[in-house]
Amino acid sequence: MRQEAVGDPWTPERALAAAGDAGWVYVAALTRTDFPLETLAALAAGGRRLLVDAHGLVRTPALGPVVTDHEIGGVLDTVTVLKLNDEEAEVLAGGIDPEAIRSLRVPEALLTLGSHGSLIVAGDLEERIVVSPLDGPIDPTGAGDMISAAYLDARSRGVDPIDAARAASRLVAELLAA
Known about the structure:
6-stranded mixed sheet
């Protein structure tokens, strides 16, 4: 994958105006410069809970082939839920096991593992969510965004992290199978 341009960063004012009175905000950036720490901190300061997709955190703003690294600063201090895939977990935590994920010190982490399901780690709680294999060719484009949105929806309605992850995984599997 190549990066041909880098957008202007979201300012705290712009992000707060877009978030309005939302209690939960889903942040999915293309690179780490899209939502600087001060913008995420401003969003979180109002008591909002942030679900942040790690792909934007690990991608540098360099043009050309996408480059990832773990130099994300204090961004995780603003995060309520971190959604990451196996590659992002390797970059940020050095692995995909629950203890590696816990080392990130975020309240909730939702690790997506493609056809191998997902893992939710929330404090002392953890659960591996296994999904049924899907038949035929599957285009997984957008599956990470779907699971994030479904998880955020469930959590915003008061569903606990384990049940929210189960419901989100089921929904994504149903949508991919359709």
